[in-house]
Structure of isopentenyl-diphosphate Delta-isomerase:
Amino acid sequence: MTLSSRLYTFASPKHCALPQISPSFPLKYPPILTRSLPFASHFRRASLSFSTRSTAMGDAVDAGMDAVQRRLMFEDECILVDENDRIVGHDTKYNCHLMEKIESENLLHRAFSVFLFNSKFELLLQQRSATKVTFPLVWTNTCCSHPLYRESELIDENALGVRNAAQRKLLDELGIPAEDASVDQFTPLGRMLYKAPSDGKWGEHELDYLLFIVRDVNVNPNPDEVADVKYVSRNDLKELLRKADAGEEGLKLSPWFRLVVDNFLFKWWDHVEKGTLLEAADMKTIHKLT
């Protein structure tokens, strides 16, 4: 049994009442009132019929799809949003990553990308596991995933839902416990919207929250999610970019990571070193990148 299957189970809101969450809030964020969300009032999840789900389930038994990844593809429910980041519904991780669905239904889901720096201001990178359905074995930022359709990860104020999800996935993927990466230590710097095919069947279409955190942590990668990890300095990363561009060593970078590198990362790295990350934050703009 994997770490993720031990710790995280999810029952759809239309089948059960969700508990009230009472998170702790940092001083730099104003108090937020938790509340029951009106799930039925504005979500279009009902459009996925049983027959559609059954067909997708049959298609999911792909040769080579790892059992853990298959389970997550159907248990995880991503949050569907429009291009202004307004929640419009939810759907399975499987459907959200099918290029056919992305193109025909314009499915766009909320995501996050964590950039964790140590006290030497080195950035922690991970290589995605070989069993990942999208972009296997590519190098990317510290952690990339999705807030799920659960109350604690649907809180929009101050990106709290996304920060809760980031804390969950740092434990799931890298073995970093919650006490070493509390939600108040994540600084949301911006949002970007992008689309990227992985292969003929799978791809990404995400509205991605970019979260920075500076912490010294112990890392214990989950092999179902992560093949390798390493810390890089600015110069190390520039050499990694050179190798990827030259096609050396078969090295590949995830498209979302490359977009962040090309548009934001090095200027934000300056703020990491100066301790002025909040000065760089712009959560009003949604950068539409390709």
